[in-house]
């Protein structure tokens, strides 16, 4: 059995932010030395995300940690750096030692069944290893019961000003109005935190950030359209980038990242080439639940061995809101509320199961899916509890049988790569009838 | 009046049958954030669902998976196998599992051609004026819909009558818990849980009458000697047998912080005549029944610590249902808070089915022995 790479000295305290920034920088330097200018944007964005957080104080900005859907553009308008805590587990999911360190810490106090996304970030907080001081913590009451263990504990651990958005069960006009009322109350919270006023100049800044955010969501829509084409020229693993759009939309760096991705995709399509590893595209896969951050390589393997490209996943799928009438604050608040409820993990997995079915319809019909995999993150128990309704629906409406695989999206120790490949491979060959190009 | 029904833990469904036979509706609900008063005001029997003595939930597991909470799964099983024959289901998003009971039952019953009333209300997870207002609006919609189901519009007057009745019930339950503060109580923890569970199976009039009869007779019961006075806290526990396993080892459960125990009742509702539904909304959102809300944890821990003092508790048993995240993370802050008042905490995991009674007995015995020294 291979020994996992040692990423740090386990006998010493870890500075998670520094460690992550150093690792991202190593990847950056490596790619630079190899002369890979066409894909540098994939790591540029990671450098931006992590270094912005690390350097917040150095740049004279307050750092606002957040969990769940919150109005990030308002945080940016107050000249603060928003730090999406879910990016910790998704970034370290491939580092078994660091991920395990934080998950194990949380499991001293919380059940093992808790979602590892929350376990990893809570564990980091419990160990006091963020490596940065947090000025405020803003979070929502969604996505799930695991987050509802973690957030109140982190509130007390951080000991900083906190604001909680109570997300409505139903995502309807009444729910939007409810959230809009809370957004209104959030503004004075930010004023008090920063000492800045929500005046005309600040609002103008918010408008500019929102216009930039519109560009990102427009590009995301175009990228989605590109993925709808057959063959899909964008590799499955690139879907992980969709996850970071919500927290950084509104920055030029996010827009640039999406524009580069689109440019690359369009160029490949024009040249009749592909960025996937498929010898030829035979199957279009939808991972109907979370992204498997702990093993994104499985998507490369499906492409290479079965010509099966992951065209969309239930986490990365987004219907972003394009804001209009930006000078009408009442209208904008409603759109902000809508956009908060349309973020990944919130859009389909909170509220009634029928919301998930709507996302399924958009993914399965628009992206011409013909292989369905319930890559079920074990911590996401409420989606498992809707699983049969959803997979029966897919079978009845689209005639596609779904493979259930239990995985831990964050903790790589849960299931080995070989076991996962065996489960998916058996399904591909015996149920789908796929040829294995790797044999 | 006999009070034997208070100790019948199986779900008989007799009262429900009689109620429905009179042409009235009976609706199930799962979580404590669905106010019974609104049902009574609409002349509908509210039946809080439980899964006591469910030994096989495999049909429901096919729908909810083995990663779901077995309590929720077992309730779905009872809906599927006809243990519950009701006119529908009303649910709040207490935690995420009851929501999925509703989704699955809605799906399964529709496919089976059953025309049931199935409705979900949203219950906020923080408490302030905005959230109470939203919750009140949710309750208003529920009241309107229940009025349509029963043909009896929910009015403020009807709500006040219902509140008077549930408050009477709450006062009787408070009396019951007062008995448990005695140095030698006359009620065991298992009996106490049977009594609170019985509310799920009786009409409120039957329940009040039985409670009164029991309380009148309580003085004739034999005081109980115990090696240690315990409190049980944690996930939804609807099986008195579980507590009996602990008490058989010499402990006596004198208090609880569970949604099928005292927390299902709580203090009386104070009615503002100008805003009756608002009074209900405020009451239910402020009442702490479990750690589902994000802003009630310190208050919950304080309640537990205060109750330890009030009931003379020597040790707390914290039972966690597997896959119950709602009650998953309290020990981190609660354990030190209890340590401060000299009360140790024992954490145990369980499933709805009594699969680990032997292990529980051993752990409980060791805990009681430690307390008894």
What does this structure look like?
- The complex is a heterodimer of chains A (439) and B (373).
- Chain A is built from 17 helices and eight strands.
- Chain A is an alpha/beta fold and 439 residues long.
- Chain A has a four-stranded parallel sheet with strand order 2-1-3-4, with helices on both faces. Chain A has a four-stranded parallel sheet with strand order 6-5-7-8, sandwiched between helices.
- In chain A, strand 5, helix 12 and strand 6 form a beta-alpha-beta unit.
- Chain A is globular and about 65 Å long.
- With 373 residues, chain B is α/β, with parallel strands linked by helices.
- Chain B is built from 14 helices and eight strands.
- In chain B, the strands form two sheets. Chain B has a four-stranded parallel sheet, with helices on both faces. In chain B, strands 6-5-7-8 form a four-stranded parallel sheet, sandwiched between helices.
- Chain B is globular, with a radius of gyration of 20 Å.
- The chains are: A alpha/beta (439), B alpha/beta (373).
Tell how many strands the DSSP assignment of chain A holds. 8
Largest interface: A-B, 42 and 46 residues
Count of individual helical segments of chain B: 14
Radius of gyration of chain A: 21 Å
Overview in brief:
Chain A contains 17 helices and eight strands. Chain B has 14 helices and eight strands.
Topology of this protein?
The complex is a heterodimer of chains A (439) and B (373).
Chain A: H1 16-34, H2 41-54, E1 63-67, H3 72-77, E2 81-84, H4 87-92, H5 96-106, H6 116-127, E3 136-140, H7 145-158, E4 162-165, H8 173-194, H9 200-228, H10 245-248, H11 252-270, E5 283-287, H12 297-306, E6 308-313, H13 329-341, H14 353-366, E7 371-377, H15 381-384, H16 387-398, E8 402-407, H17 417-432
Parallel strand pairs in A: 1-2, 1-3, 3-4, 5-6, 5-7, 7-8
Helix pairs in contact in A: 1-2, 2-11, 5-6, 6-7, 8-13, 9-11, 12-17, 14-16
Chain B: H1 14-21, E1 26-29, H2 36-41, E2 45-48, H3 58-64, H4 70-80, E3 88-92, H5 96-111, E4 117-121, H6 129-150, H7 156-179, H8 189-198, H9 204-217, E5 228-234, H10 240-247, E6 251-257, H11 276-286, H12 297-310, E7 315-321, H13 331-340, E8 345-350, H14 357-372
Parallel strand pairs in B: 1-2, 1-3, 3-4, 5-6, 5-7, 7-8
């Amino acid at each position: 059995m291979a020994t996992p790479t040692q990423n740090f000295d386990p006998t010493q305290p870890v500075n998670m932010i520094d460690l992550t920034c150093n690792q991202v920088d190593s990847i950056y330097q490596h790619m630079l030395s190899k002369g890979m200018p066409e894909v540098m944007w994939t790591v540029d964005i990671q450098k931006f995300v992590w270094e912005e957080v690390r350097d917040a104080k150095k740049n004279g900005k307050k750092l606002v940690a957040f969990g769940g859907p919150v109005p990030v553009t308002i945080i940016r308008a107050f000249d603060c750096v928003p730090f999406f805590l879910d990016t910790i587990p998704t970034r370290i999911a491939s580092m078994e030692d660091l991920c395990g360190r934080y998950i194990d810490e949380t499991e001293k106090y919380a059940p093992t069944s808790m979602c590892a996304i929350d376990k990893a970030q809570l564990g980091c907080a419990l160990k006091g290893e963020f490596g940065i001081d947090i000025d405020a913590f803003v979070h929502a009451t969604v996505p799930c019961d695991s987050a509802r263990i973690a957030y109140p504990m982190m509130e007390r651990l951080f000991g900083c000003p906190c604001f909680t958005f109570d997300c409505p069960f139903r995502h309807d006009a009444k729910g939007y109005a409810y959230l809009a009322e809370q957004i209104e109350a959030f503004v004075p919270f930010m004023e008090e935190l920063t000492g800045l006023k929500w005046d005309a100049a600040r609002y103008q800044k918010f408008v500019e950030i929102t216009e930039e955010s519109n560009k990102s969501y427009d590009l995301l829509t175009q990228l989605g359209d590109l993925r709808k084409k057959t063959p899909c020229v964008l590799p499955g693993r690139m879907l992980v980038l969709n996850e970071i759009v919500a927290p950084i939309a509104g920055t030029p760096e996010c827009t640039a990242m999406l524009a580069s991705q689109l440019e690359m995709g369009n160029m490949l399509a024009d040249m009749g080439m592909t960025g996937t590893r498929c010898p030829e595209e035979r199957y279009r896969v939808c991972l109907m639940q979370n992204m498997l951050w702990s093993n994104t390589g499985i998507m490369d393997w499906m492409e290479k061995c079965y010509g099966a490209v992951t065209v969309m996943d239930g986490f990365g799928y987004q219907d972003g809101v394009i804001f209009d009438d930006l000078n009408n604050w009442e209208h904008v608040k409603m759109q902000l509320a809508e956009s908060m409820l349309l973020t990944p993990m919130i859009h389909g997995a909170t509220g009634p199961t029928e919301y998930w079915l709507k996302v399924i319809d958009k993914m399965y019909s628009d992206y011409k899916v013909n292989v369905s995999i319930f890559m079920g993150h074990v911590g996401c128990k409420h989606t498992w509890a809707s699983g049969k309704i959803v997979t029966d629906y897919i079978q009845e409406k689209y005639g596609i049988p779904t493979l259930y695989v239990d995985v831990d999206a964050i903790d790589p120790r849960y299931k080995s790569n070989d076991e996962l490949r065996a489960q998916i491979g058996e399904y591909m060959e015996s149920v789908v009838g796929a040829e294995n190009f790797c044999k | 009046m006999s009070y034997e029904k208070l100790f019948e833990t199986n779900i008989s469904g007799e009262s429900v049958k009689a109620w429905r036979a009179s042409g009235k509706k009976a609706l199930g609900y799962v979580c404590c954030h669905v106010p019974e008063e609104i049902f009574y005001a609409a002349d509908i029997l509210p039946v809080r669902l439980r899964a006591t003595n469910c030994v096989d939930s495999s049909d429901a597991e096919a729908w909810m998976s083995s990663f779901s909470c077995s309590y929720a799964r077992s309730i779905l099983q009872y809906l599927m196998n006809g243990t519950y024959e009701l006119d529908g289901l009303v649910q709040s998003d207490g935690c995420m599992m009851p929501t999925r009971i509703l989704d699955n039952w809605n799906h399964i019953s529709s496919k089976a051609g059953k025309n049931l009333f199935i409705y979900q209300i949203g219950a906020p997870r923080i408490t302030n004026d905005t959230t109470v207002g939203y919750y009140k609006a949710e309750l208003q919609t529920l009241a309107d819909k229940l009025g349509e189901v029963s043909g009896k519009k929910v009015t403020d007057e009807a709500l006040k009558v219902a509140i008077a009745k549930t408050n009477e019930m709450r006062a009787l339950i408070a009396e019951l818990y007062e008995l448990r503060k005695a140095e030698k109580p006359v009620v065991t923890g298992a009996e106490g849980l049977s009594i609170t569970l019985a509310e799920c199976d009786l009409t409120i009039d039957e329940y009040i009458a039985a409670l009164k009869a029991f309380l009148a007779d309580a003085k004739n019961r034999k005081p109980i000697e115990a090696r240690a006075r315990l409190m049980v806290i944690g996930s939804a526990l609807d099986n008195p047998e579980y507590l009996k396993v602990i008490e058989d080892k010499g402990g006596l459960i004198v208090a609880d912080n569970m949604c099928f125990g005292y927390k299902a009742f709580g203090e009386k509702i104070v009615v503002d005549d100008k805003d009756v539904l608002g009074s209900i909304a405020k009451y239910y959102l402020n009442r702490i029944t479990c750690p589902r809300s994000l802003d009630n944890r310190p208050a919950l821990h304080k309640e537990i610590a205060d109750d330890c003092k009030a009931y003379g508790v020597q040790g707390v048993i914290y039972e966690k249902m597997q896959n119950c995240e709602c009650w998953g993370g309290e020990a981190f802050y609660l354990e030190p808070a209890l340590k401060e008042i000299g009360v140790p905490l024992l954490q145990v995991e369980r499933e709805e089915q009594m699969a680990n009674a032997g292990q529980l007995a051993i752990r409980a015995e060791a805990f009681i022995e430690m307390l008894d020294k």
